[in-house]
Amino acid sequence: MTGKILEAPFSASQPPSNSQAHPSDPRNNLPKPPSSFERYNYLNPPRYWAYLGFVASCLVLVSSSWFLWRTHFWIYGIYIVLTSAWTFPHFLFVIFSKNFNPAHHIAMVQQTLEKGHYPGVDVFIPTCGENIEIIENTLYHASKLVYDNLNIYILDDGASTEVERLTRKYAFNYVSRPNRGHMKKAGNLLYGYHRSQGDYILVLDADFAVAPLGLQHLVPWMEQNPKTAIVQTPQYFSTDASLAWSARGAAYCQEVFYRVIQPARDYLGQSAICVGTNALYRRQALAEIGGFYQVEASEDVHNGVALISKGWNIKYLPILIARGLCPDTAQGLFKQHYRWCSGSMRLITSSFFWNSSMAVWQKLIYLCGACYYPATGLSVPAALLQLGVMLLWLQDDVKWYVAFLFLPKVLFVYLIMPLWNQSNWGLHSIKSAITFAWAYLIALGDLATQKTEGWIATGASKTSARYQLFRQLLSVYCVCNLLLLVPTFNEEWYNFLPIAASHGFSLYLSWDLLNHDR
Length: 518
Description:
By secondary structure, the chain is an alpha/beta fold. It has helices spanning 48-71, 76-96, 102-114, 132-142, 161-169, 184-193, 214-224, 245-269, 283-287, 299-309, 330-348, 351-354, 360-370, 372-392, 407-420, 427-449, 465-484, 493-515, and strands at residues 121-127, 150-156, 173-175, 200-203, 208-210, 228-232, 279-282, 313-316, 322-324. β1 (121-127), α4 (132-142) and β2 form a beta-alpha-beta unit. α3 (102-114) crosses α7 (214-224), α11 crosses α16 (427-449) and α16 crosses α18. The longest helix is centred in the middle third of the chain and has 25 residues, at 245-269.
């Protein structure tokens, strides 16, 4: 391998057009790695949308505060506080953040590679019952990695003979632990950690296709700063029109997090979070916390907190090194977000987090981020409560022109963000967001009653009892929404038209979600 970047990067002053993006693999919709043009697609996006989002959130806060004052339902105030704690800080983070310097990145990578020193890198690909074609696609692209000192390990918690056969086919290391399932993915990674010895560990989920030059963009950041424990890159997803609505919708919804929120958190507070896949870990740093942190859900975020507490740094690098797939069913999407919410809320309410040696401002940034889950989950009962109270007891306060208060939010959600996002917007995006909200609400209820469902791999076929509960509750929600729309048909129907249109649209999407799982 030569000591230079093998694909010429774009000029820092003239990034490529998005129209040059590499298409998804037409063969079974399997992902391909980001092309050399796509690699920089997430760099320095415009931030104009954050200003409108901030204004829209302020107006919604005014409406919510009026409802609280008018009804004296003080428990509703919890929802207002959580929503404000999530939205306002993150809009400000985005507004006051600065751009990433691609010219510095390219020069630093080139300089490091020219030294001809290649520390050992282990690639971990944990599997647990995912589709065999998806796993083979991941292994195929991992075999194309260009790096001189590399070992690839398939950590199979499914004990699959097919996965073992594929591993042998590509001459990788097959590892299947005797206590499969213990501590879920965290336990699987720890087992691999003790059976490898590279200086760095690249973790790739089983449905991600890594670019051949991915490591050449990551390793130099580790070599440049010996206090960097993790170099985290974005999760980037296929959004081909032939994919299931859940896969396309989830990709759309997550883009803003990886394009602007993670870079903003990295710049303002060195508090970008580790999201597990597409991340390069320093073995020396992991050794200080006993390897990968052992917890059944959200082990990635726990790893980050544990390492920061030991004085290490997490670097967020907005370079696309791999492309993956979002869940292709509503159940898979639900299970994934249920797990994320459960793990994050357990972290943020744990003595491990609050007793850690993280700086106060870092804890506050993590806390603001975690507020996303309860704020989104509680939006479901909050919307139903507000609709019921307004239509049954406060009809005289319902005026059509109040809808103008929500116009900036409507423009923000249905016009500004779809234009800003690279992923295609559509009803699939809203249906995915509805699924997220219900997953968080049910996860919060389970956490409160200590009945959290056991970890189920996103790609596994096992049916989730909590997903069945979601479908039952969504059916009840649809019936309640339908009944509450009846009072809008009266002599002052024009005053109720905005409410009827908004909740009628929500009812339609919820009903469609019940009838179309994929």
